[in-house]
Design brief:
Layout lengths: L9 H22 L10 H13 L4 H8 L3 H13 L3 E5 L7 E5 L1 H21 L5 H38 L1
Antiparallel strand pairs: 1-2
Length: 168
Amino acid sequence: MQWPPNEAPTELLGRLLDEVARTSRLLRSFSHLDHTDPEVSNASHHVLKTLDLRQPTHAADLAGHLGIGTAAMSRHLAELEQAGLVDKRPSDHDARRQVLWVTEAGSDRLEARAQLRIQRLRALLPDWDEQQLILVADALNELNNSMIQGIQEHRELQAEESQDTAHE
């Protein structure tokens, strides 16, 4: 059933938030089962994976896509650079910005970790069929995109309000 905007039942939204939080905790535990990247946090690994899909790009663009702040992005990129998984160079169009890309070592690390995680998840879901996997993946993608859009809109609104307050 589809509800008009802002009218989804409160109990269902609460359940959704609870399940997303539970999933987040379980994914962290799932990611910590292997110690393939002791020098790279799981959050930084996610940044690396996203960069691999969007490269070459800039840190601010990557942060916006992921819905995280620029300070957090700087910490993740420093960790990834230290591990030799990401490299950067000055932009040809704007010397104040850096262009980022995944190194060959970063690509190798992503592939190895992806294969390990897929193998582990396959073992946990032996009775799931293709349709179930598609349904869950599509729903999570839609949820994530909606949340990122909402975060960006909220930040833009806050920035506008800050500018309005500064001009008063």
